[in-house]
Amino acid sequence: MAERNGFKHIGIVGCSAPGAALCYQTICTEGAALTGEKSFHPEVTMHTYPLAEYMRHINKGDWAGVAELMLGSARVLAGAGADFLITPDNTIHQAMDHFAGRSPLPWLHIADEVAAEARKLGCRRMALLGTRYLMEGPVYPARLAAAGLECRIPAQAERERINAFIFGELTEGRVTPEAREYFLEVIERVHGEGCDCAGMCCTEIPLLLRPGDTSLPLLDSTRLLARAALRAAGER
After folding, report:
1. Residue 37: burial class (beta carbons within 10 Å; 0-12, 13-18, 19+)
2. pLDDT, tens digit (0-9, with 9 covering 90-100), for 122-160
3. Location of each CATH 3.40.50.1860 domain in the chain
4. How far apart are CA 180 and CA 235, in angstroms?
């Protein structure tokens, strides 16, 4: 692929709109620190199928179907000239194993970036916050364990309510005081159980919470992935 001004072309596979938009915005606004030029950032192309198409497969546990949607976006982005891919949606990372070896481009993995940040901060036990599929799924535990980190998830009733806030409000771009208060309550409770950081591992949670809102470090998966993409774009 031809590099523009010496930087690689980033391809974003979108899923839910607010999180994908935050990832894109982070790349664009923080790109100047990488490029050294005000308002300049690496080339970015994003493709997304409707969230409803993803949810039809996810609700059935059809991760192979999710994988085909991701591959469809990957092919579009490869055709647009992207050099590598990211998806700021944590949940659909579960489908990556279903297209191993078939993607036209390499991917960065969001859990690797969160794990690296947790290690950098000296954390050992992360509370995992995200959709029910993500909290109960395989995306994070193995990659955190490989980095020497323990993964804890909220109680079942908490997972259900967090999931309801995500799909009922956050993916629609709505941020309410009720949701914010509930997330903070859960984080304080898991802190009392020994967690020393909380992973905001739904791309919309950073729209609800900010660093300093809690007594625990908040690991912003969306921005961590965007910054990793910027670093990768600058690699020669």
Report:
1. exposed
2. 999 999 999 999 999 999 999 999 999 999 999 999 999
3. 10-109+224-234, 110-220
4. 38
